[in-house]
Write a structure and sequence with these properties.
CATH architecture: 2-Layer Sandwich
Structural class: alpha+beta
Number of strands: 5
Strand order of the largest sheet: 1-2-3-5-4
Oligomer: single chain
CATH superfamily: HIT-like
Distance between the termini: 55 Å
Largest sheet: 5 strands, antiparallel
Helix content: 10-25%
Amino acid sequence: MIKCFFCEIQVGKDTQLIADNQLFFARYDDFPVNPGHCEIIPKKHIVSFFELSKPEVYLLYDLLKKVKSILDTKFHPDSYNLGINEGFYAGRTQEHLHLQVIPRYKGDVENPRGGIRNIIPGKGDYTTEMKTRFPQRKDYFPK
């Protein structure tokens, strides 16, 4: 019986492994959103990002930079989304911290404006509201 998927896969051979360091490992996602989609996971059982110490956050960042370099070379994405589903109501399905690293490609969606804001339908592209509320702000609008 699997108690924690991310703890259990470390025991055997994880064929999805990309890279690791002393505290974290990175692996390709089993259900990728885009080519190169992966996750960075603590080797010890940690549920929340907010449980990490500063040195652990630094090591997470170091591995993230290494993974980005690998993905840049192998997949040549145009951009990235990074995300942590922090809690059940944020969409977490594994009770083990994991940072989603999702490569993005020009044309992978019709309108990428709003990025992660699109998790709630209708909240991603707020261009119309911006034009109404802040007409002086031109930095939000495509040139």
